[in-house]
User: Fold these one by one.
Assistant:
Number 1:
Amino acid sequence: MSSSPKPVKKVPIHLQSAQNRVYIKNGQVVNHDKTFKADVYIEDGIIKFVGPASEIGVPGGVKTIDATGKLIIPGGIDPHTHFQLKFGGTVSVDDFYHGTKAAVAGGTTTIIDFVLPDKGESLVEAYDKWRAWADPKVCCDYGLHMGITWWSKSVSDEMKIMCDELGVNSFKMFMAYKGLYQLNDTELLETFERIRSLGAVAQVHAENGDIIAKNVTKLLSAGVTGPEGHELSRQEEVEAEAVNRACILAHQADCPLYVVHVMSKSAGIELARARFRYKNRGIYGETLAAALGTNGTHCLNECWHHAAAHILSPPLRPDPTTPEFMMQLLANDDLQTTGSDNCTFNKSQKEIGMGNFSKIPNGVNGVEDRMSIVWEKGVHAGLLDPCRFVAVTSTNAAKIFNMYPQKGRIAAGSDADVVIWDPNMTRKISKDTHHHACDFNIFEGMVCHGVPEVVIVRGRICVENDNVRVAEGYGKFVPCEVRPAFVYDALEGKVKPEEVVNHEEEMINGSKKLNLCDALEIEIPYQEPITRALLSGNACMPGAGEGSLASTPSCRGHRIDGQRNMQESTFSISEELDRSGNRSCIKVRNPPGGKSSGFW
Ligand code: URQ
Ligand code: ZN
Ligand code: ZN
């Protein structure tokens, strides 16, 4: 073993324009698996060097940034956006320019949007439409998922073209939106089998659309027409049932499944149970900034516009303990990613649903504030460490959709999507200062620790000194190959995912680091079926005390037969919530199949 130190290889630095070359010094690099002090050198949109300053001569004529006291993290990856989506009889106002500008402003440097063909529409034609919309407008790189909104041999055939020729490796099926996008179980099984054969990744919108359709009819005919009817029509168990069913259908088809927008404790538990049942192979879950940063009590607000602005599906839940629970699931690796599902509508657009909550265009903001929300509610709250923050806001999405390590890592050879993150800086969220095109922000007034001080998009400095300077059309489409190793090597048993070993050991000997509630008890507020609530004459808030009278913001009365009676006042969701603060709860004790010290 030579005693003398190896000669340090100097990285040759060619003289080029400073804009192409950025040198970040004195920062703390944070990747999903480790954090370390290092300097970072960027040239021509690629990270060329990560390491000690001694190994790289400080070049002249290069843009140098001092990152003392700051973190150097991979640019955020938001795996779930809907920019300029035609939906609910209108079009979401954040187009691919405003949406990606807002993303970059918040530290996200890659987004993955959804092509959602109309029923009967060719997937390839729909894809071409989305590319034509996005390519000239995007300020950051982007990928595309494909929605399977109808099913036929031709759809199955075109899925192969998406994978082989057009850089799409994931397909989203809907178990809700009956009559619009919803597929039945046979169709779901067939899509899962097709996706498995292509080496792609399945996604589901997991809610039972049949229950929802029935409940919407019952609620409207009983005179419940305001935004408060939205969550009543699709309670937690309606989401949880679909999550469980989707996981079983996918497992039966041996197809990897990514459940999008997991919005409730019940659904999160079902996903965690499936992950444990299948040894973390092939089941992944996403939650949203909305679920982590706010809750469904806003949908009970006396102001119709405020309530309607918080409507998305699956809904925000009225249980105020949901946000922390979802963050704990991310900490436990029971959930893997955070998206935004950014699908914004202005107040005037939301008014389409005035008088009928089922017509309120579904969707909220999130793409700009996602990273700060996760830092505030996760890291600053002591539930996540910085490495886990990077995993759930960037790296895991890159791995699942096969963009890694091009995206999602600070390493030589990776794209120079780099954020200098100030963990101690705070910012106050407001519609008056955000970069969205919409006139509402569901996080209005929230103060978050964790602010992107500098955002570099494939080598271009787009955020610096509180200035957002993006270039429309600078972003590029990121083709995603099939068979992401992170997914398929685990699914096919080629690797034993590390966390499976730790997770199992922790589950068996009870040493699981995080126990969400004391000794296996998880408080799930009981929600009475609306059939009983509505038909009980003096309907009361599901789960509240019997016989309580009140009136909802939208409904001033209904009779036993469900007909609307303008004279009587009926249940008021907000009043019942207040009066029955300690709503009856059911406790989930030892899971079926034996003792566990955390999730099943
Ligand atoms: O369901 C989705 O993900 C799309 C249509 C956006 N809307 C929503 O409420 N999540
Ligand atoms: Zn969805
Ligand atoms: Zn969505």
Note: The first helix runs from residue 96 to 105.
Number 2:
Amino acid sequence: MKVLGIESSCDETGVAVYDTDAGLLAHCLHSQIDLHAAYGGVVPELASRDHIRRLPLLIRQALAEAGLAVGELDAVAYTAGPGLAGALLVGASVAEAFALSLGVPALPLHHLEGHLLSPLLSADPPAFPFVALLVSGGHTQLMRVRGVGDYALLGESVDDAAGEAFDKTAKLLGLGYPGGPQLAALAETGATGRFRLPRPMLRSGDLDFSFSGLKTAVLNVVSADDWNPADAADLAADFQQAVVDVLCAKSLAALKKTGLNTLVVAGGVGANRCLRANLDAALAARGGRVHYPEPALCTDNGAMIAFAGALRLAAGERRLSPPAVRIRPRWPLMELRPPLAAAD
Ligand code: KG4
Ligand code: ZN
């Protein structure tokens, strides 16, 4: 079965084709970074308009790359939430209309499920069950994953997400958008150990996170009279290490609690090299293994949506309600259920 996947929840327009027999046939992406850079963050209205401009071209490009005619598609999957309402509406409208015109099912998908399952697209995929650490711009969650749609929340951030903390701290240090990768790059040129930053909720006894205090601690350092901007790289390194220490400790605690030894890391912050090095070492020490998506699939993309759609379609999922453009800008992942076949 061949599924076209459309991702438009934030500042990336992604279109891909996944074939349940042949794997990923096409993966096209347009990043809006240049569009939003002048504003220091994503401007929702500009994001929506750019998705409108890009989607038709990217769909044509993906079909050409896959060597498919439109009539050969078996379904159109799209991100229905969570995300920016206007941006989601663009992808949902295009996907629903396209699927209707082809007479194939449209599959409204959860963005985080896409991220969560994306490491399964790698050459050496993890087997269920596993613990997933989802670290994106909007979410920081630890989850026990038994199968597609079978997710149990173990812990999550009570305030800022890890990516959000990276982005806000990058702003405090005068770095541009997108802040996370720039802060990580600066941290790699600095040394840890000069600034004593907190490890929030490290000993809270649960699997929840909190990152807003860490950001405030950085604010206090840069607002002090004796702050020297030449020390920004060292401060970035200490900030990054503090986030990584907490993410590592809680991930290990989640593995211990569930008795599992496989960790899957997904979402944009999963691209962070310091996080990867620390998690790899910690899991290797206990005979476990960490799985990541391929580097190109760490941030938002259409491949993860095409893939999650194909898994659900292959498991027999069909739309139960008539075609409609429905989006969920806020949508708890825990509401998902395993694929549901139509009663026909
Ligand atoms: O998953 P994603 O692409 O989009 C969301 O669904 O949020 O994640 C984007 C987040 C941003 O906050 C970005 O700053 C962060 O991931 N990020 C990083 C790195 N690359 C992206 N944070 C730390 N280190 C990185 N290398
Ligand atoms: Zn994402």
Note: Residues 111, 115, 136, 267, 300 surround zinc ion (ligand 2) (CB under 6 Å).
